[in-house]
Amino acid sequence: MRFSIQTASLRQLVLLSFFLALIPVAVLLWQSHKALSGVSQNAVAEAETSVASVRRAENMQNLVVDIERAVRQHAVVKTDALARVARTHLNSYQQLLRQVCDNVGQSQLCQQQQLQLGILLDNFTELSSTELEPLMQQFRQQQQQLTQQIWLLLEQNLQQQQRFVVESQQQLAWQTVALVLLTLLIVLWASGRITAPVRKLDKMIRAIGQQHQFPDEKLTGPRELAELGEQLRWLSSRLQQLEALRLILLRHASHELKTPLSSIREGCALLSEQLVGPLNKQQLEVVGLLNGSADRLSQLTEQLLDYNRLLQQAKPEPDWHSPQQLFTDCFNDHALSLQQRGQAVELSCQLSAIYTDITLFRRILDNLINNAQAYGSQDSPVWVKLYQQEHQLILDVANNGNPIPTSLREKLFEPFQRGTTPRFDSVQGSGLGLSIVADCARLLGGHADIVDVIYADVCIRVRLPLLEEKLG
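The chain above was modelled as a monomer; its predicted structure follows.
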């Protein structure tokens, strides 16, 4: 089956990788079998050779004894029968000597023994016992030397076999290491063919989620992952179109609402001041309701415009600022609404300067103060704390009131999500306050959540990084 790796499916790539990884394993098994067979054959051959050599050495030793007995007996009793027995033993010894000399390789010793054997064959019938004694003694000594050479040869063969086994083990070990490394490289190559497009898919998904520029590079790899990359590219284009339409709609709707809303508010003001004529009690009540609704609609419009500006801010612009001045300006802007409900701000600021984007930080503070004022208890303080904890800048805004259930805490930071607790300022919320806080904290490199503290019923904590390089 022929296919291109670039266009192969994920299943084909996995099967191909598995097959390629099995090749070195199969080679290793074959090499191991070959080495084991070689060692086994060598051991069997050496064992057979050793047994044959030992057997020949023992036979030669026995023949030497038989030759010496037969020759001595013939020297005493010179009969043809004893001569034939001695000659038979000498001929048998001569055959074994040739075989041993072919294996031992001691040419000088073998020549001396063959020479001594030839002398005995030719002259043992004519020599006396006294003349045979030195010949037989020399014959025995040479046989002993020959036996020692046979045992020495067996020991050398055993050592050679041991070296052969060690060399085979070392060769097999190096082959194992090489084939394991090759298998590892194949596995790494195969995993790279899969993980590389997966990392690109992760990058694409993160780009979509963080609204960054979608990568222009086309995804290459298994066919399924490449198709998924193209689907993500289409999804990114579609989301960008929808985001652009949403921003245009939000901007135009917010802007277009301001003009008629201003007219409604001016008309309600003229009616409530009775500049166009006197109004009875019921009419004044209706005008008051219209004026309240106009204020409510104006507040919602301002929040939508603020949220639109927040979404369009791509990167914060941090600088050094005085937190005391920030808190003073913010509390002055909210002083009237706080005084109406008898709420006092208790500030605890442990820092003399902070490095942050003043616009985003002020939006966080404004929305948290407004949230604490709206949901806090009557005549209860609002706690504001700014301090450093390890490598983070911590801002806590807390108030007394109805505690927030744990199951709703994360959901409240989503856009247009409102809790079940009613507001105490008779204004219906839009569900954007905490969402703006979470988005501003995210742009500053931090996050916001709701925590439990012992001094208040509700505490919203914003954690921001201290280092300048983390603010981007």
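The chain has three domains: 10-191, 222-312, 315-470.
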